[in-house]
Design goal:
This protein has 135 residues and is mainly alpha-helical. Helix content is 54%, strand content 6%. It has a 3-stranded parallel sheet. The longest helix has 23 residues, at 111-133. The radius of gyration is 18 Å and the shape is elongated.
């Protein structure tokens, strides 16, 4: 249970909402319907997220995001893993990750990286189409 004075005020401004991440050690992606924005936002603010890889698309978004930025060890597949990931997060590990998160996002998911990936996919599809039409 979270003490009421530690909960974010839902009526706060966007600026205050983002600033509140300075007081968060670890984010927990909700189960069974994981978030998209609720995962990206804390990551951009330097807060690592523990997610649970479910069966449906809504419960897999957090896992896809964490995989994309190179943090598959923050993805759980059951209750024990979900709790275990959060508990093994030492202050030193969290501090290092907080410092590195924006760089990981930029390295793996920047607009340039995503654009190159889409272009490569288009080339592959085009080459497959051209190759199959010549047969």
């Amino acid at each position: 249970m979270v003490a009421p004075d530690r909960a974010d005020d839902p009526a706060s401004s966007r600026e205050d909402h983002l600033a509140a991440y300075r007081h968060v050690d670890i984010g927990l992606d909700p189960v069974p319907h994981g978030g998209g924005v609720s995962v990206w936002e804390p990551l951009h603010m330097g807060v690592p997220i523990v997610t649970w890889l479910g069966n449906g698309i809504a419960s897999r978004a957090g896992g896809a995001i964490l995989s994309a930025i190179g943090l598959p060890d923050w993805i759980a597949s059951d209750d024990d893993q979900y709790v275990g990931i959060a508990l093994r997060s030492t202050p030193e590990r969290l501090s290092r990750l907080r410092r590195d998160l924006r760089g990981l996002i930029e390295q793996h998911c920047s607009p340039a990286v995503c654009t190159h990936a889409v272009e490569a996919a288009y080339r592959t599809m085009w080459q497959g189409h051209v190759g199959s039409s010549q047969n």
